[in-house]
Amino acid sequence: MKPSEHLEEIENFKSAYIKKIEEVSGEYLSESSLLNQYEALAELVMDKIASQWAKTRSQYDEIPHKRVYLFSIEFLIGRLLKSYVNSLDMEETVKTAMAELGLDYETILSQETDPGLGNGGLGRLMACFLESSATLGLPFHGNGIHYKHGLFEQKIINGEQVEVADNWLRHGYPFEIRKPNEAVIVKFYGNLHSEKINGVLTFVYEDYEPILAVPYDIPLKGYHNNTVNSLRLWSAEPIEEFDLPSFNEGQFLDAVRHKSEAEAITQILYPNDNKFDGKQLRLKQEYFFVCAGLKRMITRFKRYNNDCLDEFADKICIHINDTHPALCGPEMMRIFMDEEGLSWDDAWKITVNSLTFTNHTVLPEALEKWPVDMMKFLLPRIYMIIEEINRQFQEELRSKSGLNELQINSLSIIQDGQINMANLAIVCCHSVNGVAELHSKILKEETFNGYYKLFPERFHSVTNGVTPRRFLINSNTGLRDLITESIGTDWLNNLFDLEKLMTFKNDAPFFDRFNRIKLDNKIHLANYINAHNHISVNPESIFDIQVKRIHEYKRQLLNALQILHLYNHLKANPHIEIVPRTFIFAGKAAQGYYFAKEVIKLINAIANLVNNDKDIRDQIKVVFLANFNVTLGEIIYPAANISEQISTAGKEASGTGNMKFMMNGAITLGTMDGANIEIHEAVGDNNILTFGLSSDEVSHFEKHGGYSSVQIYENDHRIQKIMHQLIDGTFGHLASFQSVYDSLLLYNDTYFVLKDFDSYATAQHHINELFKDKNKWFEMSLSNVAYSGLFSSDRAILEYQKNIWKTL
Ligand SMILES: *Cc1c(COP(=O)(O)O)cnc(C)c1O
């Protein structure tokens, strides 16, 4: 753009904005509130996106590429305004226009709420996939739930987590469009009987409870292109708003009850991460969005395909994110048979050929199992279909597989009065994939080995990725600009291009700028810490960061215990000088997860002890930041020196936080778990620190025993000391961490914290030495940025297209 055109664009933007302010607030700019200023900007940007959105839709209908519909019970999208502005390539224009109007762009952006419609990695991955596919220009749409309350807001009060309801829609949400004319009815409960209608055996479903599903669409704009895809979130409403005067009292109460029972379905997001919660309401949620999403999609498909379903599986791929949407299988069978009149065999062919499935965990407590009685009561027709799918599957095994009854039973979808949703998904989908090499291997060799032997061709692996737009380009603008000045702009469309950065590994001016950018990002985070935690931290210290959901398998406890040990070491040796270190934690614990909440308490107790001890002379600081979410992540990831990825090997399916840190130049301190293994392979031995048991060793101990945490305790005086401190009043008379102590010593340390302690502490000590060598550290950090190309979700999407959806 010529400078004169740019000036004109800024002037146009300013006048449009001034007009918009008046529209949204009925006031002049000078009188308007910050919230109105944000709303006006949001609406102006939505206006720009709307025409591209409509155009993308009509182009998809004209050129019938195979489309992918993604079903997920979580989408953790983060704030959108900045993404939209940058994807429209309007960052400079908007920033300058705002400044010239006397407004602070960053402050306006901070008015946006962060929709917490997910718990962690699983929901965030879906948001990255939506962003990448829009950027790649692919027809790809999300279906999920319009939770009225997303994940709770976390406050830390007296060192403990306190949950506050998340009312993210309080001020409305400017990026969604309600589509009441596309609402559909979802049916629950009721009775089923069969009848011959016109000579055909038909299932008649009666006395069911109908609920209205109303969609809200959110546009997902590609970066620097014209593609705008949709995320469709379904909201539950009563079928008819009641008309007050015509009701007698009894009818009125019934109507009120119906209204609140209907709305309950999409009131809250279940707050568990990697843990199954078998509440009936959750099952209702799962069927609700599956039924509504499929119904709309099939209606639209028929409209553009002469009412004919023959080519459905050639033109549509339905991808289920973990097993929460696994009722897609039986629901498609129901629609195809009961509503479209297809035979079982024809319906089954289309169903299996269009469905694909990603598994997200091997933790047994996370695998979904619904009681048969609950399914039968809530969804009688769906249950009947599941039973028939299972019966036919078992018949086929009996006739073809050569398996004995015991083996056939072990593969049953229904076992011990429960419906195993992973088994249902594997039987109904023609593709099953894990999310990193190790995880996919464990699925094949352990978790789903019986199925793998039956259908080896169904099993795939796609390592997760993250969008570099959100997690590097838009959130680390200093590094973005340095990269572009150094290697040009090609990397924006092909992240593998970052490898060219290695030519700067001996370049002194580059070295200075690279380090300065990291320091600036650390100062930014230090300011945030000061403002929110009133702790002053040294930006020159090593920022050593673990941010993710609090979970035993992620082992925040190992990190905390090592800090306690380091504190003891410094107390006992008052003249020791270490490189100053700031340990930063953030993450939410599920409300009902007692142990995880104790860990938060312990971290804060250690912080209190360490930060206030004059003997430590500020050599270590410990910070727990409240309310980790995508927005906070965007401040944290760019500021890290060390990325803590220390899960018990074999337990973390992939991790994606590890990739966000790496892209921003942090060095991984990790176990050989999840995608840490691919990170290790990408950067090489010298640019990562690994420690601890391998997944084979962990699984050997789990199967055959041979690990005694007490034995480790008895032979390690460091561990003896920290174990005593948990219960001896070190943290004040009232603060005792007996349950932590017991889990480690009495219950033999399920997650091998004490087993890995020594190797972890050694690695931590090694970091202290490495950081002193500025050149060495720079090369490690640069290598992490340079070799992060593999971890773009663009690469992941291309692999799904090629190997799983067959859309390439
Ligand atoms: C990336 C991300 C996660 C996942 O982090 P892991 O370290 O992979 O567990 C969780 N929550 C938020 C807000 C994220 O952005």
From TrEMBL:
Catalysed reactions listed for this entry: [(1->4)-alpha-D-glucosyl](n) + phosphate = [(1->4)-alpha-D-glucosyl](n-1) + alpha-D-glucose 1-phosphate
Cofactor: pyridoxal 5'-phosphate
InterPro entries: Glycg_phsphrylas, Glyco_trans_35, Pyridoxal_P_attach_site
Record flagged with keyword Glycosyltransferase: yes
GO molecular function: 1,4-alpha-oligoglucan phosphorylase activity
Domain of life: Bacteria
Alphabetical list of Gene3D superfamilies matching this protein: Glycogen Phosphorylase B
Family classification: Belongs to the glycogen phosphorylase family.
Function field: Phosphorylase is an important allosteric enzyme in carbohydrate metabolism. Enzymes from different sources differ in their regulatory mechanisms and in their natural substrates. However, all known phosphorylases share catalytic and structural properties. Allosteric enzyme that catalyzes the rate-limiting step in glycogen catabolism, the phosphorolytic cleavage of glycogen to produce glucose-1-phosphate, and plays a central role in maintaining cellular and organismal glucose homeostasis.
Alphabetical list of PANTHER family matching this protein: GLYCOGEN PHOSPHORYLASE, GLYCOGEN PHOSPHORYLASE, LIVER FORM
Protein name (record): Alpha-1,4 glucan phosphorylase
Species, as recorded: Acetobacterium malicum
High-level lineage: Bacteria, Bacillati, Bacillota, Clostridia, Eubacteriales
